[in-house]
Amino acid sequence: MSEIPIRWPSAAVETQLAADLGAEAPTAPTAVAEAFLIPLTAYLLATHPGCDPDACATAAEDAILGLLRNPRAFDPSGLRLGAYLRTAARLDLGSARRRERWPHAHRVLADAGRLPDRALV
What we know:
mainly alpha
């Protein structure tokens, strides 16, 4: 698999997108999604080798949608928009991976409780 180059928006573009989000510009949601979806997905794939590509894409989408649902959660005086979205996407991916493992771990524990006594010797 060849690496996907990660091309983040410039600092000026990030600043403008953040301002548009804060001003609730009607074009802001589409512009943010277009600017960040591919780089966020590529970033997750690059930083989580072996992770399911669909899970990375979903985490990137969820991070962007979360921001668009609640743009006031982003404070432009703190992180840049790209850093905020990378953090959100990493957290979303981590949550998804934990949810994915939980049913299996729960089944293993439940199955262990059903073993006959002689199997534990």
